[in-house]
Amino acid sequence: MIRAPWEEKVYRNRHGRGIRTPPFGTRLPHYHTRSGMFDDMAIAQIRRLNAAWPQLLAPLQFAVEDVPPSSPAPWEANPRLTSQAFPASHGIPARVVLYRMPLQSHARSRADLQFAIRDELVLRIAELYGRRPEEIDPDWGM
């Protein structure tokens, strides 16, 4: 059945000034924010390390925060600005936290950011287990 143009449903907001359709078509990829892309890169590196060391990464928790806490612990002489490892204690599993903004501000390209995420994850995992980072990932630091 053919409908007249004035009978068609119009996608506008209440005042008639909004957008008519969704900003993305059904076949276009959704817009990724910088934080979403960072999360995707971190997840990809965790999956890659988990494939090589499932017994090491199984008990760990991973998190991403925007910035490090503004007040470092009193016993820390050099506060870590890019990532931090928290050992397990009193029923809380060991955690590795990446700080997104410092890592993104030092990276010059997307590949540089991927390498920085990889190096930080490997360094903190090695710190938690008392190993050298080269044992966990031979490409660490390259």
UniProtKB/TrEMBL annotation:
Gene3D superfamilies: 3.30.2010.20
InterPro entries recorded: Zincin_1, Zincin_1_sf
Biological source species: Bifidobacterium canis
Domain of life: Bacteria
Official protein name in the record: Peptidase
Pfam families reported in the protein's UniProt record: Zincin_1
